[in-house]
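Q: Joint fold for the lines below.
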Amino acid sequence: MITRADFEAIAAWIPMGSRVLDLGCGDGSLLAYLKATRNVDGYGIENDGASIVRCIQTGVNVIQMNIESGMKEIADQSFDIVILSQTLQAMKRTESVVADMLRVGREAIVTFPNFGYWRHRVQIALGGHMPVSNDLPYQWFDTPNVHLCTIADFEAFCRDRKYRLLGRMVFNHERELTVLPNLLGTLALYRLMRDRAPT
Amino acid sequence: MIASPLKMLFTEPLKLASGAVLSEYSLAFETYGNLNPQKTNAVLICHALNASHHVAGVYEDQAKSEGWWDNMVGPGKPVDTDHFFVIGVNNLGSCFGSTGPLSTNPATGKPYGADFPMVTVEDWVDSHVRLLDQLGIRQLAAVMGGSLGGMQAMCLSYRYPDRVRHAIVIAAAPNLSAQNIAFNEVARQAIMTDPDFYGGHFETKNTVPKNGLMVARMIGHITYISDDQMETKFGRGLSEKSEKSEDSSKPQTESVAGLKFSFEPEFQIESYLRYQGEKFSRYYDANTYLRVTKALDYFDPAAEHGGDLAKAFAPATAQFLVISFTTDWRFSPARSREIVKALLDDKKDVTYAEIDAPHGHDAFLLDNALYHRTVRAYFEHAVIASEATA
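A: Joint structure:
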């Protein structure tokens, strides 16, 4: 579930006037918020026709495209920041999507529901069921989430690919956490870039 | 909505891309809705190959005379004439009212016929802007077109950047592919090799290259429809005449599968294409067809920028809405994505929608709920919003 708090957390990492690409932008409300608060200039990427209509109504530029297709129409390093908000877990080609984000943008912001949250662990360990919660509201058979991960998993993923983490925020619902993030956190936000910035 | 065709005469010569000059010419046009006092609500609609200035509405006492984009333009329609002042203009070289091969050449007092010069997308846009000047419209709220009309919308955006705030480019392409040109050439050859063509001077022989026009239209029509749509609509179905035996004493051969073993039209698709071709040949001028297909072939804004489409669009200041249709194989979504890529490279404002429709290229003219919602949302939000700052 995307809340106002998520928007504010993302906005905190976005310098004024940045050129931003929002992948899986839905109705465009995050971009509209960033336009209003950070004066960004940018586009949403969305593959659902009804969402395209809502983006037009929201007043943001939107490009219909499958973000797993390689985004060939978008030039290398043509954006300051590329955002993937709560969509990572629904990607089939997760690895190439993150690589493409860092191809088209200097920095990436990735947010995802933390599968390591203790309630999820309890549901599997003691209940013996796939977790269902406010943050992961789907049953195993109808979930769009095919690549769920924990905070520890994502950090290992970035380390293996030599992505440099520029920032991390972990929330338990609306409250930011500083201790035991992988156990207590429901939502993780990361800001990353390639280890060697392309010149 | 009742439409009434208008005509504007231009006596200032128009220099064409070919170097030829039209010393005077007139443009046929129609308008719908009212121009507001600030003159900020004008929308220009550009037409494709065989259409005209009659975009919407019906003519007085002609119930079945709906304009070619009547499902898109009108009161309460996606391009709402209760708010916008919409202009439909007929391109130069057409046979529907603007100066073209059927018009009288002032130099000879006879119809131009084959002597009418080649016209290009750029020439059309130049003439449209002169019409805007005469109508007192300094800046359009939007220019909009599908297919060849989309090319005119693009062209206006970079050729006259300060004259338009939004360009809506539907089912278009940044230029024609070799395959597109090939289809056009076959159509032209069909016309030019018709014995009734007489080098384009058929008018002096009191005839028209009817068969050539018919074949040209049949070829064109195939490219407007998707393979799936043709299959759904016609498949291998036999036309009724073929299925029913007209003469019960006919030999057995036809009764087996209803086949006639003749070259008469028997598959439904054959009858359909012949019908479409025949209808077209009755109202369309062969010299116009030749010129319009050449205008398509020549359109290539990137060419004078070393093939860099982004450079061609660089002067544009308009915001863009680009729309393609998934089953369009004439101007496929990949061609629209080339346009989108150039606009993204230029950091222009652009929105792109790829509409899932089964109909092929023709989809841009048909009713499709999501397509119409997309255009409606764009006009209701983006285009109207821009009026405040115009």
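Q: Anything notable?
A: Chain A touches chain B at residues 19, 41, 43, 49-50, 52-53, 55-57, 59, 61-65, 72-75, 78 (CB under 8 Å). The two ends of chain A are 37 Å apart (CA to CA).
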